[in-house]
């Protein structure tokens, strides 16, 4: 069953109705399906060769047998682990599938490695059995620096491992004619999945980029595709924007953004938590340009309605049968307080297939309504160029450019002095994730929400460069950027390169900071020091008012207070 919006009341809001009417009178839905590039821009550049996601499902259905037999062969080869090396659109869809479904019984464990931070690279390297691991090298362009550096590292690891099967342990997913395709041929990769070239990275989850990892996880790929197909047909055959599941969502997000509610805040059932990682890259990279855009807010801790400003639109994804009590309470409280909440109901996890397509369609619709080009990423290149320049300086001068050194507390204070309604704080963490670190970042987000009532986002670097990075620099100038950078020790060399992973990660952090500052975006950098969790906790303490002197315990025994509900 397709999932349906259940927030028709919200769609009757006059601002949204007006946008939906405009979409109807400009025949937006029909024109998407006839691939009319003038819907977005007068020139077809990077539009007419970026609409393959509308039809890729048919090709993937034809390729189902091939995908299944590939996954079967991987199982029969007794592969224990699959490590996906990719960035942005090539990694975040698989990461969502991994987090949402996990590996089916008897299928290998999937690792998605989209970082150059040495600690993270080392963690994955240590966790796998190199001789029994399959490496998926996933890159549309086939030349992304992170992916190629990671490939060099794991190629070397395999080469040094007793009993290795060389190139047979590697699989490429890429466009036709790329350097990666050639490399795969030269090094004797097990196989190459050649993707349709008319799909941009962030729209590629329902192509080989998402479905090869899905098959390796042991998912029922046919079922995932059939949910996507049902949604696609609803998005194709329903001409009224209000009833069209993708156009309704896209029109609503654009209308609300134009009316000042540009922070699309995802609330999800626990099992769907990771979905925000994929939505972030899709929405931010597609709409965050020309000084406008939608700011996706994912993974933010739930808070009471007063913690949120009037710049929010909430979208709740509710999975039937999940632990939904906290989510349901929040939805009710937010609605009662007058915040707009749009609800999407998923009958089971496979409905994610439909959601992927719905959000892709919605993003294309929102792009039209906002008057921007939803398929290019003009500001992503800047940070890459800055990284390359910083690396060059390191090579020639042997050091990084000097940056102002503030203590963590000074840096955060300086940044938060600029907190004001409609702004958001983006935390950009160049470090290795851990449950403790994730928890401390979430707690810091909550402290900022409660104290300053602004939206907060968080992303690991360099991952976010290929996701929200475009919006940070090209979108509305409302972000405050807090870079956390760890010491990158011990470092890991990149074979045959003058730079190590640590140098590359540092250069990416510095390069992006410079890009942000060039765009007059307030941005500061904090050294995480030897104990990142402790550093972040000190910032939380700074924002959290000290508890007033505790009362002495009462002499008389009082009845127990009612149980408080924590959010
Ligand atoms: O798949 P690749 O060519 O390696 O590209 C990875 C990523 O690179 C850039 O950041 C693009 O803006 C993303 O949309 C893309 O997903």
Account of the 3D structure:
It is a single chain. This protein folds into 3 domains: 8-37 and 238-370, Glucose-6-phosphate isomerase like protein, domain 1 (Rossmann fold, 3-Layer(aba) Sandwich), CATH 3.40.50.10490; 63-225, 3-Layer(aba) Sandwich (Rossmann fold); 378-543, Glucose-6-phosphate isomerase like protein, domain 1 (Rossmann fold). With 567 residues, the chain is of the alpha/beta class. The strands form 3 sheets. The chain has a 5-stranded parallel β-sheet, with helices on both faces. The chain has a 4-stranded parallel β-sheet with strand order 7-6-8-9, sandwiched between helices. Strands 11-10-12-13 form a 4-stranded parallel β-sheet, with helices on both faces. It has helices spanning 8-11, 14-25, 28-33, 56-62, 64-76, 92-101, 118-127, 145-159, 179-186, 208-216, 221-237, 245-258, 275-287, 325-336, 352-370, 380-397, 408-416, 435-452, 469-474, 501-518, 532-543, and strands at residues 81-85, 109-113, 133-138, 170-174, 191-194, 263-268, 295-297, 312-319, 341-346, 424-430, 455-460, 479-485, 523-527. 44% of the residues lie in helices and 13% in strands. The longest helix is centred in the middle third of the chain and has 19 residues, at 352-370. The chain is built from 21 helices and 13 strands. Helix 6 runs parallel beside helix 10, helix 11 (221-237) runs parallel beside helix 15 (352-370) and helix 13 runs parallel beside helix 15 (352-370). It binds 6-O-phosphono-alpha-D-glucopyranose (G6P). 6-O-phosphono-alpha-D-glucopyranose binds at residues 87-90, 139-141, 144, 147, 201-202, 285, 377, 380, 466.
């Amino acid at each position: 069953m397709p999932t349906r919006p259940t927030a028709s009341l919200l769609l009757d809001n006059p601002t949204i109705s007006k946008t939906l009417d405009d979409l109807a009178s400009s025949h937006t839905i029909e024109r998407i399906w006839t691939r009319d590039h003038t819907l977005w821009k007068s020139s077809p550049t990077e539009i007419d060769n970026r609409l393959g996601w509308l039809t890729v499902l048919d090709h993937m259905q034809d390729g189902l047998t091939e995908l299944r037999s590939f996954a079967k062969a991987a199982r029969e080869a007794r592969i224990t682990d699959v490590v996906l090396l990719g960035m942005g659109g090539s990694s975040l869809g698989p990461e969502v599938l991994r987090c949402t479904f996990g590996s089916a019984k008897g299928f290998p464990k999937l690792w998605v490695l989209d970082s150059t931070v040495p600690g993270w690279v080392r963690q994955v390297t240590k966790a796998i059995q190199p001789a029994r691991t399959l490496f998926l090298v996933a890159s549309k362009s086939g030349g992304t620096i992170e992916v190629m550096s990671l490939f060099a590292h794991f190629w070397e690891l395999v080469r040094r491992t007793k009993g290795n099967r060389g190139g047979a342990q590697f699989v490429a997913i890429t466009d036709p004619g790329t350097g990666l395709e050639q490399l795969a041929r030269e090094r004797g990769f097990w196989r190459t999945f050649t993707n349709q070239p008319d799909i941009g990275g962030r729209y590629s989850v329902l192509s080989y980029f998402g479905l090869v990892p899905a098959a390796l996880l042991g998912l029922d790929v046919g079922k995932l595709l059939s949910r996507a197909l049902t949604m696609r047909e609803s998005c194709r055959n329903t001409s009224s924007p209000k009833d069209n599941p993708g156009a309704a969502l896209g029109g609503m997000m654009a209308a609300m953004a134009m009316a000042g509610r540009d922070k699309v805040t995802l609330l999800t059932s626990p099992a769907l938590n990771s979905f925000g990682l994929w939505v972030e890259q899709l929405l931010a990279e597609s709409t965050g340009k020309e000084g406008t855009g939608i700011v996706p807010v994912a993974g933010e801790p739930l808070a009471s309605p007063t913690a949120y400003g009037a710049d929010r639109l909430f979208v709740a994804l509710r999975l039937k049968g999940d632990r939904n009590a906290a989510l349901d309470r929040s939805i009710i409280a937010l609605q009662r307080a007058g915040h707009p909440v749009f609800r999407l109901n998923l009958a089971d996890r496979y409905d994610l297939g439909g959601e992927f397509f719905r959000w892709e369609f919605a993003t294309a619709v929102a792009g039209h309504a906002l008057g921007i080009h939803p398929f290019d990423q003009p500001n992503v290149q800047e940070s890459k160029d800055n990284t390359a320049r910083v690396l060059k300086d390191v090579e020639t001068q042997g050091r990084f450019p000097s940056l102002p050194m503030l203590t963590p507390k000074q840096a955060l204070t300086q940044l938060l002095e600029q907190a004001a309604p409609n702004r958001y704080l983006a935390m950009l963490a160049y470090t290795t994730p851990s449950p403790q670190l994730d928890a401390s970042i979430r707690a810091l987000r909550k402290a900022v929400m409660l104290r300053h009532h602004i939206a907060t986002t968080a992303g690991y670097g360099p991952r976010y460069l290929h996701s929200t990075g475009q919006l940070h620099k090209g979108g509305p100038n409302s972000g405050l950027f807090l870079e956390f950078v760890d010491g990158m020790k011990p470092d890991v060399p990149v074979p045959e390169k003058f730079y190590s992973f640590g140098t590359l990660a540092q250069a990416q952090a510095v390069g992006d900071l410079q890009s942000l500052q060039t765009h007059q975006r307030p941005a500061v950098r904090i050294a995480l020091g030897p104990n990142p969790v402790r550093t972040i906790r000190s910032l939380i303490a700074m924002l959290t008012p000290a508890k007033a002197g505790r009362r002495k315990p009462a002499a008389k025994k009082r009845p127990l207070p009612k149980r408080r509900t924590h959010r």
